[in-house]
Amino acid sequence: MPVAKTIKGIGNRVINAVWRIGMATRFFFLTLLYSGSSFRRFHLIIKELFSTGVMSLIIIIVAGLFVGMVLGLQGYETLKRYGSESALGVMVALGLVRELGPVVAALLFASRAGSAMTAEIGLMKATEQISAMEMMAVNPIARIIAPRFWAGVISMPLLAALFSAVGIFGGYFVGVVQIGVDEGSFWSQMQAAVDFREDILNGVIKSLVFGVAVTVIALYEGYDAPPTAEGVSGATTRTVVTSSLVILMLDFVLTAMMFGGK
Amino acid sequence: MERSTIDFWVGIFVVGGIAALVMLAMKVGNLGTYNVADTYQVHAYFSNIGGLKPKASIKSAGVLVGRVTEITLDTTRYEAKVVMNLDKRYQFPKDTFANILTSGLLGEQYIGLMPGGDDQMLTNGEQLKKTQSAMVLEDLIGKFLYSKAEEPTKQGK
Hints:
The structure holds two protein chains of two kinds.
Chain A: H1 2-33, H2 36-40, H3 42-52, H4 57-81, H5 88-126, H6 129-135, H7 140-179, H8 183-193, H9 196-224, H10 229-258
Helix pairs in contact in A: 3-7, 4-5, 4-7, 5-7, 5-8, 5-9, 5-10, 7-9, 9-10
Chain B: H1 3-28, E1 39-46, E2 57-60, E3 63-74, E4 79-87, E5 97-102, E6 109-114, E7 126-128, E8 130-132, H2 137-150
Parallel strand pairs in B: 1-7, 2-6, 5-8
Antiparallel strand pairs in B: 1-4, 2-3, 3-4, 5-6
């Protein structure tokens, strides 16, 4: 019966997917529940901030600079046709602050820091360090997972803000310094069009949500990885793929909620 | 790595991130550009506001003097009521004229104030009596066609 087999296969996959989503949600709430102790021992979070936030700085800054420069160049080419080169600043700033800053920074963060988190925790599990902790009555979620979670949530908005700021300077460099758009109109039109609450704060909220999503996915995949070399490598790949897709889907939902229907 | 080195770099990271946010708010956004602390409120009725939106700028002689805060439809007179906050530093005569203008060909709409000659100045909560509505393209075309139709045809009989 090949038909019944196919249907069984589909059912099995759906049940597995739902089960994993449920486990990830439980894992997320457990992390929140046990994160009190990681705030009492704040140096644990600082150590993780170093490995997730500080170590991602270079890739974020370089990527932001080039994204801003490309935006400046492409925006100029398009705006030139309508004789409104002076709106280049608006285009670069709104594009970065609303969309590209949070999204691209989160994608880079997922592949730079998320994959490292998954591999680290997966290997801890494979070498039975997590079981050893449980034997010593140390809660691994409070000791290992929660500090990494909070480090990711704290560093994500900061990285996105840095990305946007550097990107705007990249756009400024190409647009004003290289091409010669008027500097005054570049900044003043930008300031007139970008609203603090509407644009900047919404961008920060977006990056916070992405930070939560990426770290939860990375930590859960690591914690759930089969304790083998193959299992850890598979979990790392799944972290990058799943969190990239989740970022893009959440971005649509958040954009529709924040800017849609007005 | 030593703990103090880690602390140092994390400190730089956090301070840098917050500095980027502040820079976005001040230099890129409009938080630093217009101080809304010292304002007084006036309102005006327009028969058509066109594409005017809340937070649109109010200019006099091209200088930003305030912002539109609220636009509602007054159902007693079926006209748009536009509430605006003006900067306390700028006082306008009572018979100031409020126009809805467009910046550039495709630009945003804003309110332009033309000061009149009255001795009395506008105070908080007062109304700008003289207004001119937004230009609506369809109305203009309609008027143009109407006036063309009025003209006697050249051929005659």
